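G., before I forget:
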Amino acid sequence: MANKKITSRDIDFAKWYTDVVAASHLASYSNVKGCIIMEPYGYQIWENIQNIMNSMLKKSGHQNISMPMLIPENLMKKEGELINGFAPEVAWVTHGGQEKLEERLCVRPTSETLFSDYYSGIVKSYRDLPVKYNQWCTVIRWEKETRPFLRGREFWWQEGHTIHETKEEAENEARFIMDEVYKKMFYDYFAIPAITGYKTDKEKFAGADYTLTIEALMYNGVSLQSGTSHYFGQRFSKAYDIKFLNRENKWEYVYQTSWGASSRMIGAIIMVHSDDDGLVLPPKIAPIQVAIIPIGDKEEVLSLANQYKDVLEKNNISVMVDTSEKSPGFKFAEAEVKGIPVRIEIGSRDLENNQVTLVRRDTKEKISIAKDSDISSCVTNLMNDIQENLLERATKRRDEMTYEARTLDEVKKIMDTRPGFIKADWCGDPECEAKMKEIKGLKSRCILKDEKPLTGKCVVCGKDAHDLVVWGIQY
Amino acid sequence: MANKKITSRDIDFAKWYTDVVAASHLASYSNVKGCIIMEPYGYQIWENIQNIMNSMLKKSGHQNISMPMLIPENLMKKEGELINGFAPEVAWVTHGGQEKLEERLCVRPTSETLFSDYYSGIVKSYRDLPVKYNQWCTVIRWEKETRPFLRGREFWWQEGHTIHETKEEAENEARFIMDEVYKKMFYDYFAIPAITGYKTDKEKFAGADYTLTIEALMYNGVSLQSGTSHYFGQRFSKAYDIKFLNRENKWEYVYQTSWGASSRMIGAIIMVHSDDDGLVLPPKIAPIQVAIIPIGDKEEVLSLANQYKDVLEKNNISVMVDTSEKSPGFKFAEAEVKGIPVRIEIGSRDLENNQVTLVRRDTKEKISIAKDSDISSCVTNLMNDIQENLLERATKRRDEMTYEARTLDEVKKIMDTRPGFIKADWCGDPECEAKMKEIKGLKSRCILKDEKPLTGKCVVCGKDAHDLVVWGIQY
């Protein structure tokens, strides 16, 4: 009994996605072209993500800061590749009040320039290093398409910017963020078995020496870039003059990183776990973990509902009791559409048998428990099961949709069936990368430096290949 | 022994203020004209304020949301007074990427227009009301002056926007926010005895029926508007067509409020409590509540420092142990400049006497305690004392600087001595308000509806006066 407001994901995945976002009230389109409104339920997920990531970042010595949202054109232009990369997609402020500005300002598309400019003023000695700052904000990129959480002119993100004494330390930082922050978030909280690796030169960030990326496979086999971590070497520090007296008392330019993950993570959560009844949320990031639905308005039913609520809340489980005037069936569907991990149904008939019913959102399985059970342990255990099951289910799907291809024909045959992650060797030549793109738009997602090539020969040209690359359709 | 980097506040208050902000690393000027950088220490205070206010708002049924940062000119113009009020100070985006936009967009100076437009789409019946949403963001107003936290082109704030079924409910909301949220924050957390009341028509928000305000008296007698709560009646709901079917099944326009408090609150905290040695922070909003300073590097000293740290942190007290290579005197000064409420000095000589020293930042008083004391209770009690003392001290100062004036001559005499809050009756005529301004720029701060007029005659014109007004110099 799929939700009537929601198109089936096997029929029209794109429509299914927007239907789920709308029906669960995560976000809505605004009358500002290209910009969405993150509604309370979506924003609560975002706040949960912020809390989790802030805790990880603070534990590892990072601090939050807030930079201006506007960047003067000249400051933006100091590093050539960055402005070239972003020029086609920034919004320009040209007037302040009634006056035309002498120099136009762009609304930040990313803040390497501001952080670099700031760092050049606060660092003098190796004793001032490292500096590991992060900010939460929205940025503007003048995109044509609008897909809530995935693409649009404004999105929410965190951007970390760090500077270091040595190349090694900076490279470790870029890797730490990818492995110990982003990947951990995806596995442990979002229940998403995302893969990580290096971007090819063509796909890396404008101005980076290299870019690490985390890529998640959606239900429909499409690949979503979900976070990136860049190692800049000294490119920005030379352009913005961020230097320090090193331990040999000589001036040296700092080694720099930046890394960002955005509200697109919410898009990934939706597209990996949800189904035709609506959202499915991993318990660890769900704003409401338990929906208690009293059936009928008998005193004993309501009183047990409130008693459960109190006990669960004392155990830091977030609960809502739905006492609205709607029918039980409607309330069940609403809890489903919102992806609330556990539903507790309390009805008079059940109570006569001293029972209540728990329903898990991921499998729809119904579980009867005695009404005097330790409700907090029951729910906690069930939520752990759900969290595990979601990761297992997504891992199984990812593995089923991960292919190895040794020849171009094999690549084409896979793509004729369905997309997914295709592992194939690559010689490093951008022309071979371009040829892959001719096959239904396949793009390199990431280079797996830790895995050996399959054959040692490029899947396109047959020349020697040292890199095993994961290819896929980019969201 | 005042901090050498800080000008005395009695010599040059404005300079003192910027010195304190710089020396304590709350914020710094950026190379983006008019915009500051909120540095980690300042941002932590802001995060504390957000946590406190979010908890108050969520408890009272408010939810966070996030609206676009850009507003199309036509949407902005739908309500005439608002755009007239803000037109001189908005920043306009005219180009996206390489293209000139068909319609320019302003960077939000405030978001009544966006919320109203959104609300018109989501409300159909009285059952959908009230809607009580809030957002945390930065806004842009094209100011000429830049004073960290006080004035500038970009500032941090929350803006709440609510719609209601009845006038009464909306008016209660506007008052609730002022009395139960803002005033509580100021008294209970910031230790600032701010006063509240109504703005005169001249000083109210563009488009509001009336504006409630919270005004705090700074050390130098100047008055800082620190938060406002507006009742709009149906002005915006008529302009943006936000209507609902009421209980009589008739279409009616909603009753609306908005309210905001900004990073200016940090400015108030600085200017009320701090001194010539730097910042003084109320323990309840201090990012670091205790600085432990080991004197020397003897094993037993360091081990006790860490032991204290563990105990305090277990009791949710935020602690830093300063083990840097600086001299103890330098570390003391640094803890002072940062306004850390409690300093614990641990020296070998003290330890020989089984003692350690606590130093409170507000009074500089040194307190010896036995090293085996229950450090957590000692610190908690001391922090409570400090919190109370700060409020008492500020209340005493406010009361000493609050004057009553029954004639214009009395007003002038007071202003010849020093500024403060001047209570005086007012007839309601804007011309009398303008005449007051001729006296060293005195402005009405708020009308005290709960207090009776002093004489019943206007202090300027002598006509009947029903309003007792607090006048002061606006920051």
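The longest strand of chain A covers residues 154-164. Chain A is about 35% helix and 25% strand.

More on Monday.
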